[in-house]
Amino acid sequence: MSSNMRYILVSGGVISGIGKGVIASSIGTILKSCGLKVTSIKIDPYLNIDAGTFSPYEHGEVFVLDDGGEVDLDLGNYERFLDVKLTRDNNITTGKIYQSVINKERKGDYLGKTVQVVPHITDAIQEWVQRVAKIPVDGNDKEPEVCVIELGGTIGDIEGMPFVEAFRQFQFRVKRENFCCVHVSLVPQPGSTGEQKTKPTQNSVRELRGLGLSPDLVVARSQNPIGQSVKEKISMFCHVSPDQVICIHDCSSIYRVPVMLEEQNVIRFFSERLNLPMPGINGGKLLRKWRDLSDRFDHLRKEVSIALVGKYTQLEDAYASVLKALKHASLACNHKLMLRYIEACHLEEESMKTDPVRYHEAWSQLCSSDGVLVPGGFGVRGVEGKIRAAEWARKNKRPYLGVCLGMQVAVIEYARNVLGIKDAHSTEFDPKTTNPLVIDMPEHNPGNMGGTMRLGQRRTIFKTDDSVLRKLYGKPEYVEERHRHRYEVNPEYVDQLQKEGLQFVGQDVEGERMEIVELKDHPFYVGVQYHPEFLSRPMRPSPPYQGLLLASCGKLQSYISRGCRYSPRETSFYSDTSSEDDDLPSFTSPPRNNSQSSGAE
């Protein structure tokens, strides 16, 4: 273990979904702003090996990493906040730990000993954390200096007990001066009294301390700002000083959270508690950018409406990265995002018969939107509604972005209504179709569901210079984006589609898989087989989403004519003549790789 490594454990109490992921990401952000190298680990106590087979209604979206790891959506928060690239091992599950221990037992690594939760499972957890904490995540070979670990669930959960015990031991294994515990707890405010209640937090901290972990910081989450008297009461009963009670109330944007932590001297606390060598104790230029970002978000006046036509619209977390990518792009366009969730099946003709009210409401929302987004998804439900949404956007010249399945339904729609192939379909939804416009991938290995798709980072080669998306990316020869799919456009129909105007401007390295499709003579009609939302960052929006929002705001052509740069008035909010941290991201379209064409500007 590196002698310089520091560990910050973030646990939660009272209820789940309290914002541990955002708190953990924000802690990493303010430490990185001080010049430290930061990595993150998410622990999920469920028995699944990974998140790949989850329904979106279980834990929200499945986030995909460069190495193809299918992980919890909180790792997306870490990557977006810290601007790093994590690995599948940064997501620890009970299933992974038990699998590794059982495999060792089968190989005889324990020399015939009785294998138990303590010490074998707890040792495996500690060894995993120490190993992964040393993996570089920011594009160079330097080891991180700080590892922020989020323990999923709430203190007291049965499935989380081995992890709590592991970290009780871990604080002595790495020395107490290198380990810090942050406990996030809810301070409810019942409507009947209007008084903020500290008892749930007291009980949660008492239980945590009874398990052998004493929090160094208590982060009190509340709906409204917490008063000094409440803060002092938490301090008195939770064995921390008032300065160690950090109050984070609901705010307009999660971009505000790192700023709120910094304003409560969290940087100085970590510096002293962990003896951290901080080159920039005041946060530097990066933290100023976060402050400017949150201020800009609060002062947006113009609005842009996007219709998201999906099948998991009842749970916002099912499209967490899509939502974040849209917000990043709308913020760069200086517009407030008005997202309209439309259940795809409500757009279908059958819905007009069974539920005419919802049918007309869905079409009213779609028709009044500035742009249309059809994200990825699995299963036949709602597919015809997505096809109708793509048709409407194409015929009415409304900006359209199709992601993964959204690209496939755009191709199917074009084949049906332009090429006249009325029975065009995907073999995913109609295995017996005579015109399979979308087919299952030849490399797909049937059998186990988990980890069998085309996953992770893949290269897409641009086939033409006259591509809107290529210009938005900065005119590279290729881009590398993350994939998660089993089906793709059938190459046998590509020539027919291109002759009728649907251009496949991006393909894989072998030229067999269609990655990007564009329609000429349209303000913005783009489909991508990959998931660009996984690489979107608050200060570096994803180009496909950026293009959708620019077109929806009526700014795309002027943006391209200026060399894919915003006007000085739009970027002045982020201008900084200081030379400090000049390599920090700004609101420009970034190259997604190191290969630029000779015509790049």
TrEMBL record:
Give the highest taxon in the source lineage: Eukaryota
Q: Which UniProt keywords apply?
A: ATP-binding, Glutamine amidotransferase, Ligase, Nucleotide-binding, Pyrimidine biosynthesis
Composition-biased stretches, type Polar residues, lie in 586-601
Pfam families annotated for this entry? Answer: CTP_synth_N, GATase
The top EC class is ligase
Q: Report the InterPro entries cross-referenced here.
A: Class_I_gatase-like (IPR029062), CTP_synthase (IPR004468), CTP_synthase_N (IPR017456), GATASE (IPR017926), GATase1_CTP_Synthase (IPR033828), P-loop_NTPase (IPR027417)
Q: What are the Glutamine amidotransferase domain coordinates in residue numbering?
A: 316-547
Gene Ontology biological-process annotations:
'de novo' CTP biosynthetic process; pyrimidine nucleobase biosynthetic process
Which residues does the annotated region (Disordered) include? 432-453, 571-601
Which stretches make up the CTP synthase N-terminal domain?
6-276
Q: What Enzyme Commission number does this protein have?
A: 6.3.4.2
Q: What pathway does the UniProt record associate with this protein? A: Pyrimidine metabolism; CTP biosynthesis via de novo pathway; CTP from UDP: step 2/2
CC terms in the record's Gene Ontology section: cytoophidium; cytoplasm
A GO molecular-function annotation: ATP binding
Q: Which reaction does it catalyse?
A: UTP + L-glutamine + ATP + H2O = CTP + L-glutamate + ADP + phosphate + 2 H(+)
HAMAP family given in the database record: PyrG
For this chain, the family text in UniProt reads: Belongs to the CTP synthase family.
Protein role: Catalyzes the ATP-dependent amination of UTP to CTP with either L-glutamine or ammonia as the source of nitrogen.
Name of the protein this chain belongs to? CTP synthase
What species does this protein belong to? Branchiostoma lanceolatum (Common lancelet)
